[in-house]
Amino acid sequence: MIQNLKKILNIINKPVLLLLSTIFIHLIFVKNYPVSLEFAFIDFAKFYENYNKLILEEFISVQANTVVFSYIIFFFDQLFSIHNYLITGRFLSILSYIFLYFGILNFTNFFKINLANFFILVLVLFLNPIIWIYGFKATADLLPASLCFFGISQIFSNKNIISKILISSFLVSLASLMKPMFLAIIVLESLLINYFNYNKDIKLRIFYLVLYNFLPFISIGLYFYFSFINFGYVLSSLNNNYFDYNLYNFCTKFLYYLGITFIFTLPFSILDFNFKILKKYKFYFIFLVFLFFIGYQNNFFPGELNLGNFFNINENILRGLYFLCSGLLLFHFYLSLKKSEYNKIYLYIIISFLCYIFALSFFRPTQRYLMLFIPFLYVVNILIKKENKKFYYFYFIFILFFVLINICLTTYSHFRSTNAFKTIDYLKNNSILQVTKPGPLIDSYNFYLYDQVIKKYQISSQKPEKYIKEFSSGFLFFKVNYYLSKV
């Protein structure tokens, strides 16, 4: 089987086909009706047509992100005369795969990763469910994450040091303007620049760090100033609502982030665990069982750390799983650092990642924020996995598993989009949109405009005893049903 896999890789010999295939599949669904609050970014792109302050107020009411991604949508839509902000926004998200691909290529050239592992790295990263599904969405998530990855990869390129710094700094700045929390990547950047220039004079190293960090910080500072002067706010007040000082909640969210990162970095995160390890560290694994029961009894709501709407997993089991996996991830880091020849680079990535989730744990937990570090963790993990037969078997199994999950997620998302369009179109045509509680449609249309209107109808995904109309799309467990009923 391994020989056959290698023959296939030699025949293809061009991992760029994976990139083109991924882009093509995502383009098929580019006209789907918006979900996952895509409408907020799309609607705000219209703001730049006439600077209507009402559009700004609507955006602030539903989004904690900056307005930069919407401006980029507007800019490229006008530049290429697309005249469809939704399609333009999704094109931009699809471009993320190009940045991810060439970021991996930079790391591959630096670490001399062989073709088979390069192929597997691209394939597994592109098929990672959270990376895959956000490639369909016109939101400020995958694009800034991929820009950060590509930007940091410039440090590993063979350009001269000043060129590396300026290009990387620009890309990280652009990403941070779209997603200010991604500015946390400068921790990794600073550690790496210092590492690669450790034999140079301390003043020169400080100069490099100042040169790199100047643009991200000055651009964010100027954006905040511009936002306050022109819009009357620095960041949306929604960020204040999400900030949480509670120590118990902080610790719980920190463990949740560790646990879901272990899941998101499969298959690499699990390859360290074999019978020999289980036997040697049996008391630690008993402790992991204990962690599961602590998490199971935990009553803190995991926010958006629920693996998506499609996976309807019992919350207690999910919490227990996250606690257990948090221990597995830390143990995986420990085992990997012991045997990595690039342990300093690995350590810097771990330190940066822990600093990042430390900061995230003060806010409402959201799984999509983790896509910033998934590519980095994939790269450093494949470096310590030698060409071992069992690893190729694992890769093959998980690739099939990811393909199956993505087929399910893509199909479900498509039918949810189709049903949202049918339902909202019916509400508009019958002039009852403003007086209807949106329920599951809340992320497909700006119903916040009508918050003050008295509601006469409601949409639900659970079948009520009495209802006016049923909207349905899909089949079997991909079926999406919405019901219109009176309040």
Helix/strand layout:
Layout: H1 2-12, H2 16-28, H3 38-45, H4 47-50, H5 53-62, H6 68-79, H7 85-111, H8 115-127, H9 129-134, H10 142-153, H11 161-178, H12 186-196, H13 202-231, H14 238-242, H15 247-264, H16 275-280, H17 282-297, H18 315-339, H19 343-360, H20 374-383, H21 389-429, E1 436-437, E2 457-460, E3 469-473, E4 480-486
Parallel strand pairs: 1-2
Antiparallel strand pairs: 2-4, 3-4
Helix pairs in contact: 2-7, 3-5, 3-6, 6-7, 7-8, 7-10, 8-21, 10-11, 11-13, 12-13, 12-19, 15-18, 17-18, 18-19, 19-20
Give me some keywords for this one.
487 residues; mainly alpha; 3 domains; four-stranded mixed sheet; 21 helices
Q: The biggest beta sheet, please?
A: 4 strands, mixed
Which spans of ≥5 residues are poorly predicted at pLDDT below 50?
none
3D shape: globular
How many distinct helices?
21
Strand content: under 5%
Helix/strand/pairing category: mainly alpha
Number of strands: 4
End-to-end distance: 60 Å
Cα radius of gyration in angstroms = 23 Å
Percent of residues in helices: 55-70%
Strand order of the largest sheet: 1-2-4-3
What report would you give on this structure?
- Strand 3 and strand 4 form a beta hairpin.
- The protein contains 21 helices and four strands.
- The protein has three domains: about 240 residues, no CATH class; about 140 residues, no CATH class; about 70 residues, no CATH class.
- Helix content is about 65%, strand content about 5%.
- It has about 475 residues and is mainly alpha-helical.
- It has a four-stranded mixed β-sheet with strand order 1-2-4-3, with helices on one face.
- The model has no long low-confidence stretch (mean pLDDT about 85).
